[in-house]
Every structure is written in C-alpha cells, then in structure tokens.
Design goal:
InterPro entries: IMPase (IPR033942), Inositol_monoP_metal-BS (IPR020583), Inositol_monophosphatase-like (IPR000760), Inositol_monophosphatase_CS (IPR020550). It comes from Cryobacterium luteum. The chain is of the alpha+beta class. The protein folds into 2 domains: about 140 residues, Fructose-1,6-Bisphosphatase, Chain A, domain 1, CATH 3.30.540; about 110 residues, D-Maltodextrin-Binding Protein, domain 2. It has 7 helices and 14 strands. The protein is globular. The model has no long low-confidence stretch (mean pLDDT about 95). The structure holds L-MYO-inositol-1-phosphate. The site of L-MYO-inositol-1-phosphate has 13 residues, from strand 4. L-MYO-inositol-1-phosphate binds next to strand 4.
Length: about 280
C-alpha cells in the first residue's frame, strides 16, 4: 500500500501538535488538577492530558481514518493502512502540573507494528507551547526547530558531556536510577533532569544536551523525539543495540555514544538489578 510522502505526514503531525499544544497551554493557564493516578501515586494524569489526547484522536480520525493509534491515555487501535500514530498528549506531566514550562505534545507516525524495536518512524513533531518551540523531523529530511536545521554536538569527550536523564514513577526504581547517576556524575560535565523525554531528545538534537539516557520510558515518550534526534545526527539505541526500547534509551552523537555505552554498562553491572526491570 502506498503512503503519502513523509513530508505530507509531517505537515499533519506538526499542525495537530500545534493545535493540541494550544489547548494544553490554555488549560494550564486556567489551572490544572490531578484527575487520577496510574502505576503509582506519583504517576498522575490530568484532565488536560485526557482532553488533549481526545482532541488529537479526533483530528487524526478525520484526516487519516485508516491509521492506527497508540497513545498514553486511551486504548490503542490498529488500522488498515500500515501506519500508526504514537502520541503523548502532554509529555512532562509533572512539570505541567507544577507549572514548570518544560512539557510537550509529542506526535509521531510510524510504519509497521507500534514497537520501537521494529517500527520505522516516518515523521514526528514535538511542541512545547510554553516556550513556543516546534521541533520536527521526517525520515531522511533532517530535524528542525522552526525553520532552523538542527545538528547534535560532535567531538565531545565524556568528561565534558552535559548529560540528561530521568527517573521513574516508582520509588525503588528512582533509588536505583539515582545510584546509577551517582556513579556517573563524576565522569561527565554535569547532569540535567528536565522532566520530559521528548524535550530531552530534542535537546540532544539541538545541542542543549550532549547525551541523554533513561530507563523505563514508554513508546509514546520517545517516538517523535528519537526521530528528531536521529535526523539531527544522533545515534539512538540501547546497550549493544540500535533500537531504543522500554528497557533503555541512549541518544548522543556516535563518537560520544561509543564512549558512554561501556561506562553505562559498567554502572548497570555495579549496582543491583533494577527492581522494576521489565
Ligand atoms: C515522563 C518522561 C520523563 C520521565 C518521567 C515520565 P510523562 O513522561 O517524559 O522522561 O523521566 O518519569 O515518564 O509521564 O510525563 O508522559
């Protein structure tokens, strides 16, 4: 089955992400409340998360009724077109709840099963409405912040790398992740915890971070951001793997990735097995 060119899909992803971002930003200004908790009391969902995903689903159903949908806040549906939209309506939910301006609408379209290990990401958009930043990429056409072409930082030594990471919603996993960070902090320039995987990956793409790694992400957290980072020249994968997954995601320029991978593997060996390993 033929599909529209990635640029056509990209235009749709960008338009929908911008529309959804405007709604998220408006709801933030009106005040945000927790609607429910999910995997733990820390893992919250707001009414805006649900409303924004409903808006995105409706816009996609109108534009691409035969595509599948795989989002954070509603049931997955498979389509007949071979394409699936992978959506995080508000990535950085805790930042959103607290009014920290680092949250994003993440919209990606992939070919094949909605599995990061096997899908082919065709186009993606990550919109931070609080800062008015629109990150985009389509397969083979580069990564962009607005109309500015993005490139990762090259020739960075690990000892001078600014690394981003994140922590899970379960306390024992956070303690394990903090142990790993404690083992790394003396081997890099510094560490940032921005609070949104989508924006962390876009930060690698535009050079605001040299590398990013996190364990336990969901596919919707990174579907668009990983494409944007790859199209900006990053290698995105895991340990001895070129596909990111739930177990681990690493993103960095290839030369820095090669320095970082054995160090992270050593830290995973040094600390007890992650209690939340899935
Ligand atoms: C978040 C990720 C972040 C991670 C958080 C959370 P959410 O996604 O973007 O990188 O550290 O624990 O998973 O829940 O805000 O969509």
């Amino acid at each position: 089955m033929t599909h529209p060119a990635p640029t056509g899909l990209l235009d749709l992803a960008r338009t929908i992400a911008l529309t959804a971002g405007a709604l998220a930003h408006r709801r933030r200004s009106e005040g945000v409340e927790i609607a429910a908790s999910k995997s733990s009391p820390e893992d919250i969902v707001t009414a805006a998360d649900r409303e924004v995903e409903l808006l995105i689903r409706g816009l996609l159903a109108d534009a691409r009724p035969n595509d599948g949908f795989y989002g954070e806040e509603s049931d997955a549906t498979s389509g007949t077109s071979g394409l699936t939209w992978v959506v995080d309506p508000i990535d950085g939910t805790v930042n959103y709840l607290y009014g920290i301006p680092f949250y994003a609408v993440s919209v990606a379209v992939v070919q094949g099963d909605p599995d990061p290990a096997t899908w082919n990401a065709l186009a993606g958009a990550v919109v931070n409405p609080a800062l008015g930043e629109v990150f985009t990429a389509s397969d083979g056409s580069g990564a962009w912040l607005g109309d500015k072409r993005l490139h990762v930082n090259h020739d960075v030594s690990l000892s001078l790398a600014l690394a981003g990471t994140g922590f899970g919603y379960e306390a024992t996993r956070r303690v394990w992740q903090a142990n790993v960070v404690g083992g790394l902090i003396g081997q890099v320039r510094d560490i940032r915890r921005i609070g949104s995987a989508a924006l962390d990956l876009c930060s690698v793409a535009c050079g605001r971070l040299d590398l990013y790694f996190e364990r336990g992400l969901n596919p919707w957290d990174h579907a668009a951001g990983a494409l944007i980072a790859r199209e900006a020249g990053a290698r995105v994968g895991a340990l001895q793997a070129d596909a990111e997954g739930r177990d681990l995601l690493i993103a960095a320029a290839p030369d820095l990735y090669a320095q970082f991978e054995p160090v992270l593997a050593g830290l995973f060996t040094r600390f007890p097995v992650d209690p939340q390993a899935r």
